[in-house]
Amino acid sequence: MALTLERNTQGAKGQRESLADILANVDAHDTIVTSTCKKGSKPGNTLMSHVADAYSAAVTTGTVDGTDVGASDYQDGAANRALLQNYVQIFRRSVRVSTLAQEISNIAGVGSGGELANSIAKAVVEIKRDIEKSVLSANDARLDDGSDSYLTKGLATWISTSGGSVLQVPAAFRTPAASIESTQTTSNIEDSHVQDVLSSIFGQTGSTKNFVMPVGRTLRRAFTDRLTGTRSVTDSSNQIAATQVRTFSPQKGKTVTMSVDTFDGDFGVIALANSNFMPAATDGHVLDMSGIELRYGSLPQVTKLPNAGGGEARMIEAIAALIVYNPLAHGKFDLGS
To answer: Which CATH class for the 29-51+81-334 domain?
Structure first.
């Protein structure tokens, strides 16, 4: 006969007396971009558009004293403008809780609002994580055709040499290849490659900036393993193998520090931010956060759905679009393992 007994020392699973009154969400990772980027105005349409502009190249030619402005001397101040566009995206989660689960069950860690309130609170966090993953993704923009939903173009596509294929970034504003490190792997990346990315971004913007880099766990380990400690090198002229020693500060009292949190380069500072939502664990986006914006059509809202007897149901929904002012101001690491 199968039955639940109190003969063992642990008791029934979930029994309040044997559990701490806490529900641990082991997958509650930080959402660095959605938490720190600008929050723009509410979209006025499903298609978001903004104008990007660029200065003309600097010149060293002078002007002869006393000469008049000729017809060919005038310039078009709008010649470098281009339209950058993206679609909105609907983010939705739905929850339902049976009558007994809501009214009778008394589960450890669930507050006075019961399972329904707990499910709603959890879904709101999950929507924010969905937005973060979409923002960091390689999704291209997509138009809702009745079977496929709207998608907002993700950062991995905004920051690319192609600029996507739908609502494609105009050629003059696509991120150049030099700002994207994709030729190296996590086992051979060096500080010079990071410097090269920063140098390329500076070449486009002329500004030395502070960047935030959401980074996958494998690339994060590579920054620590490859940019500190020791590594083998070869003297190409004499074909002699040697060990190159990188000097850092491994100790602070009794604490051994083996982590790279900030890369301070010649053309900017990169603050590394661990992320579990990158397209790949070997990826990192070098972001000027002042040039990234999320426009919310609606923040997560809870809508009550009909209860036909199966239990209370709720829909949690948000609408958002990612705006990148100028893809030339950002960079990317897209490494092999």
So the answer is: alpha beta
